[in-house]
């Protein structure tokens, strides 16, 4: 493309060269003046059109180079097994939230998964390590539907009561099993009861793990009341919220039947925890607590 432009400029320079003007001058004496001027104008027009075309093509090439380089620098998003990257990118014009379900897989996980799929939305499931093997198929299906699977320790023990090496085992064993089922090792984990101390932070930092908290606590385990759970979510939700629920109760499933269509109606898009943080901050820092992006 640059060669074409150079050729055009060389042609223009030759065209404007004084010796050429002399030739044209003698030609004017021998031929009809208007004919020469017409041919000259046509030639100049053709050269200008070629130059404009070259410039336009150069512009397109530069534009496509920019698009390519933007794609190359795009952050890596959590990808559920078999999912294409472009399908995971949230719409920047819409508010986004991350629904999270702890302590499963449980009795109501399959129904919640069906509900999420029906509304074409996704959530993050914080699973307990020792329950993974016996619920492999549910976790696999969940990840295939685009949900994110995050560890919630191996034994649901209060991590602050454990030694550093025990904390490490709780996180690593759970993450390894999640990876063997879903094909993705989680960046986040959620400590049981939200209990964290210096040992937990230090081990998380060493492992490169981000500690997942929440910004909307439904307390669904306490009330077991669908209406109360719905009210808490619908009154507290904001752009960037991480909502804490448990996929263990019928009331939580019932609340989701109200909350999901209502939040869609309000314009929210449902993203995974990784999508929420990647979109809003680019990276999450290991060992730090993450509450959402409001
Ligand atoms: Zn829990």
CATH class of the largest domain: Alpha Beta
Uncertain segments are 5-31, 56-86
Q: Compute the CA-based radius of gyration.
A: 31 Å
Tell me the major beta sheet. Answer: 6 strands, parallel
How many structural domains are formed by the residues? 2
Q: Compounds present? A: zinc ion
Give the overall pLDDT as a whole number.
Answer: 79
Strand content: 5-15%
Instruction: Find the CATH topology of the largest domain.
Output: TIM Barrel
Based on helices, strands and strand pairing, what is the structural class?
alpha/beta
CATH homologous superfamily placement of the largest domain = Glycoside hydrolase/deacetylase
Q: In percent, how helical is the residue content?
A: 40-55%
H-E order = HHHEHEHEHEHEEHHEHEHE
Overall form: globular
Distance between the termini: 48 Å
Oligomer: single chain
Which CATH architecture of the largest domain would you pick? Alpha-Beta Barrel
Number of strands: 9
Enumerate how many helices there are, as a single number: 11
Characterization of the model:
The chain is of the alpha/beta class. It folds into two domains: 2-73; 85-290, Alpha-Beta Barrel (TIM Barrel). Helix content is 53%, strand content 11%. It has eleven helices and nine strands. It has helices spanning 2-16, 18-30, 33-73, 109-118, 136-144, 164-182, 198-207, 220-223, 226-236, 250-265, 273-281, and strands at residues 96-104, 124-127, 148-151, 188-189, 210-212, 216-217, 242-246, 269-270, 289-290. The strands form two sheets. Strands 1, 2, 3, 6, 7 and 8 form a six-stranded parallel β-sheet that branches. A three-stranded parallel β-sheet has the order 4-5-9, with helices on one face. α6 crosses α7 (198-207). The protein is globular and about 90 Å long. The two termini are 48 Å apart. The model is unreliable at 5-31 and 56-86 (pLDDT under 50). Zinc ion (ZN) binds next to β1. Zinc ion binds next to β1.
């Amino acid at each position: 493309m640059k060669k074409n432009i150079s050729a055009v400029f060389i042609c223009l320079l030759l065209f404007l060269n004084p010796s050429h003007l002399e030739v044209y001058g003698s030609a004017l004496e021998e031929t009809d003046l208007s004919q020469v001027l017409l041919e000259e104008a046509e030639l100049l027009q053709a050269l200008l059109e070629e130059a404009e075309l070259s410039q336009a093509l150069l512009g397109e090439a530069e534009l496509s180079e920019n698009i390519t380089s933007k794609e190359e620098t795009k952050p890596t998003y959590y990808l559920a097994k078999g999912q294409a990257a472009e399908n995971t990118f949230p719409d920047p014009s819409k508010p986004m939230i991350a629904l999270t379900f702890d302590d499963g897989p449980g009795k109501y996980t399959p129904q919640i998964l069906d509900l999420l799929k029906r509304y074409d939305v996704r959530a993050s499931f914080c699973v307990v390590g020792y329950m993974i093997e016996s619920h492999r198929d549910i976790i696999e299906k969940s990840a295939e539907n685009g949900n994110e699977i995050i560890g919630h320790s191996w034994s649901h023990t209060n991590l602050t009561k454990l030694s550093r090496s025990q904390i490490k085992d709780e996180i690593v064993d759970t993450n390894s099993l999640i990876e063997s089922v879903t094909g993705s090792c989680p960046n986040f984990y959620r400590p049981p009861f939200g209990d964290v101390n210096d040992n937990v932070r230090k081990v998380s930092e060493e492992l490169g793990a981000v500690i997942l908290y929440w910004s909307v606590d439904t307390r669904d385990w306490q009330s077991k009341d669908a209406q109360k759970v719905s009210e808490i979510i619908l009154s507290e939700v904001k752009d960037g919220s991480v909502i804490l629920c448990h996929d263990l109760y019928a009331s939580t499933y019932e609340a989701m039947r109200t909350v999901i269509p209502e939040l869609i109606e309000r314009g929210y898009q449902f993203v995974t925890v990784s999508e929420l943080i990647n979109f809003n901050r680019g990276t999450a820092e290991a060992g730090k607590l993450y509450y959402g992006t409001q």
